[in-house]
Batch of 4 targets.
Target 1
Amino acid sequence: MGFDPVTIGIIGLSLSAATAGVGVYASATQAQQANKFGRKQQQAQTHAAQVQERQIEAQAALEKEKTEREAHHIRSTLRVAAGESGLGLGGTYEALMRQADLDQALNTEIIERNAAMAIQSAYSQVQPRPPTQNALLAGIMGGLGGAQTGLSLGAAGMGLQQSMTTPPQRTPSQMGLGQRPGTIPPSIFGRG
């Protein structure tokens, strides 16, 4: 069952084309999937940061409300104390009222700065999207790799065909030449 060299060549080219096609498809698909995974990963991280931002803002609003209530309580207590003493809100009481307002403003500013830094930290955890892979270029590279594999297989097939159609070359010693007259080559008896 021998194939002529043209058939072997056609088989080699067919193998080359088939493996090139598989290489193109596999490489392009892999590049598209890597791009899709990168986009989804970044979207998930951004969503998590947005959720965390909403939580931080809600916590900051609650802290501001607490600060406001505390300052209102201090001012109310000072008014009552001033009214009971009969001195009015001047002098020491006025200074204490300004201090309560100042403390409230400072605490509110600290809460807002801490919230802004926490939000910035949440977004800094979002990894930049990895560079996308060009599916066309990846397909071309995969096709070239597949073509090279196919050509190698075709060349191996042609080498096999040639070795099957060409009788083995025997050296003079294998043919019994160069031995002393009257001796039988050892290969005849299965030794050697």
Target 2
Amino acid sequence: MPMNYHMFSQALISDKAALRLIWEDDLKAMAAQLGIPTPTLVLVEQPLPIFFVPSWQDRRGKAWAKNRIYIAVDVLACSTNVRRYLLAHELGHLVHHHTTKTIAGIISAALLSLIIWLRLPSLMFPTLCCFLFTGLCWRDYRENQADDVGRTLIGAAAMMEGIQEMGRITKTSNINERTRRLNRIAEGQQESRAGM
């Protein structure tokens, strides 16, 4: 006798609930390791539709200022490596208050642009170019800081495996940015071995 839709959807819901508990247990352990309150895990039905996120960047996990980590449902059943990588990396963003700092930077840039536009319009284009360059550097800095926290939590090898596997999931494993991040983590791993 074929399984009806209701029974099938109930099985999916219970799997999602069980998977969520696994994610929450890992999140709780990592937050305790960092000595911070456990963030709320928020599940979203699809990769986060953030238009300003570069195509190479994973949109299946995001940290937000109000102590929340957003995870796309399509990665709930991923491997332990990806789960631990995503959680550790997003905790890194929370620990360093990246969302708050980014919002403050955008507001400050907008206000400064307005003042320059009103007072010295001839400087508007160079100012915008400077803001764009600073924003690109800030993005790399944030990702590096988050990766450093992740490396502290789960180790360089686990971070590298998670990043590589996430690249295969999102079909972005050949993107230069992902390769740069892997190389940076590998260098950190070699430096920590040399220091032992």
Target 3
Amino acid sequence: MQTSTVSFKDWLIIMTFLLVAMISRLWGIHEWPLSGDEYFTYKYANERTFQLINPAYYHLVLISYSIFGINELSARLPAAIIGIISVPIFYATWINVIGRKAAFIACLFIIFSAWHLWLSQFARFYTGVFLFSSLAYYCYYISLIENKKNYLYYSLFFGSIAVLFHFSAILIFISCFIFSIYVVILRKRKDSIFSVEIAKLNIVILIVAAIIVSPWVWNRILSWTRHEQAWGYKSLLSLLQLAKYTQLSLTVAAFFGVLYLIKRENAKGIFFVTSIGVPIAAYMFMAQYMAVKPNYILCVYPLVIGAAAYLCSSCLEDRSKNQIQLYAVTSIIIVGLMPAWISHYTDRQTLDVREVVDYLEKVYKPGDVVISFVKEFDHYSANKFSILQMGGVEFYETIDWKRLKKEFDNTEYNVWIVNHYWRKPFSKSFKTWTTEKGSLVWANISDRYDYPIRGFQVYLLNSNIANIKAEILRAAEE
């Protein structure tokens, strides 16, 4: 197999994808408030730059701060730029693995992927994982096919960059290590298309690297085990949650795309199975014992998209079908992606945590206390209220709710609770507390056209709750 030359037509496609990605990924990021973990990037970028855990994105944020100042746009711009260039780069590289039609379709899927869109507008490190894991897997595959050591070194380099964006990208090396063992074991097969020499070299390099970094890796894994699994689900349910992130139409197409790859191009199919299957298996195992979420195996997403696109391109090549049937599969997948893609924009435009701050400024009195479970609220309400920061733990049953209730139930002042409202249920203790002792006085839920629910709520806790609620409602109306 020889890598293809990028033609003039390819350049037109690349520039078109670049333009569309710029429009879709930059839209609104300068005006929307911080959301969730963006708070940590915004506030702690300087001190986290020189830590061993995920430092790459924070370096880019500091550069952005130095050019554009410290604001929401600057915090998000590195993620947006990486997300934008990942689309044309995917096309320019993976045409050599899955073909031009499949690479073109894959880029359409990336453009309309709500997960990729969200992460491209999110001031965190995940788009770096997507881009560099895509390049790492691509270079690794090319090194095996063309027996080129330099591509193996490129793969190791890009994989290392991905790890610097997020530790979870170490799964790239694990899956490539396992596939290299597979290549060596099956070296005597006549139909083997992979370089045994490159596979052996990769095994040796990764073993040496594993010995060197194993203490760091072990400490990082232990840090994840210190927290309960409140971000996601355990066992097989974690797989369903992953399918929700990757989106069902794309996930199903990828599954059958891998099966078709195995049938049509067995060796390439085994590569996709290993590269996707090993990280997913690791994720399911980790979800049983530690706090992990689907973002932690974003490294497989380029391959999932590639497999789905391969299935669609194969349908396009079947000339025995009429034109409507040829484009049906691709169209169904894109239509399946659209509700979540559109909902991303409607969500961001209709839900603003700064509205919570404005509301509390109207009703808050000296001596009142605000218990905040919303990190971004803490940021925008700085120095305006007396705040007890809880950091999004209204879903944790392990919190000492009895202590909180004892401390605040009998206070003569108003106690305000600011919390998220998601589809995931609150902990029983939190629900009991707010139901028995409090009253919901403000709420807003974003407009969406898909499954997730996202919003904010404000509860008021006070021993004289009925009179206080009436007074608050009158003040809010004024």
Target 4
Amino acid sequence: MSKSTRKITHYSVKVEDSKTGEEVGTEIIDNCFQLIVKFDKLDRVYDYTDISRFHFLFFYKGGGKYCRGYFKSAKYDHRPALIDKQNMTERQNPKKTTEGEGEKTHFTIGIDGNEALLLLENKRDGVQINTFKSYLEYFLRGANNNLRVNVGLSVKGDFKAKLQELESVSSVEIFTPYTQVTDTFGNLPISKGDIKDEAIVTFKAKRSHSIKGMISELYNIFTNRQKDKIGRIRVHGKTVSQAGILLDTNKLKDHDFVKVELDENKQVVTNSILPTLEELIKELL
């Protein structure tokens, strides 16, 4: 088996009654998925006809605070001719128009009162967050037509709190007005109309070192509204479990990167990713 890396994004998921505006306990998500996975496969399908792609919940294990599973999806009505890279010959694609290459998208969910934390594998040809929302909402409304699902990037704590959770920081990018750079280097041939307003200054840690200590001082400058010095900070670091995380003062979006194994068809081996995602969500929740 070969090795690869998969990007994981954190999302906040809430369910509310659109009629009353009241939030519903997120254990309803777990209950819904446990019910769906008992259906026949055809009854689990959500057909996104606008893009000729269907999705269905293939595996799910819940019943507690931490739940995990994966979807399978495929694009149909798409069968261009096949080209052999060895000799450039083409042949007709043997697929039926109702068939497509199956793609897996793995996820874990942490149930926490009226807000659930979702860790979703990023896959261009898999289940995106909007599809996840539509899928869940479709089946929830089968029981209660007033239920609505709200999703957003998970922001757990402020920048400094997230910074303290990092084991180490390998680099930091400081976005500063370009005038700071021109003042430092003299008369650079820069035309304001040709460049963005900000220059990016990057500090990198020495091998096996961390520059976590300097970030707090930089953040103090940032929060003191000294935008003429620092307009934005991006931090690249790692958690105790060595998951890579990006902290950004513009949008606190957490990106984790996990190591996975691929099978002979270059598909992620489920047993190589779900246990890692479950460990990660326990750290975060």
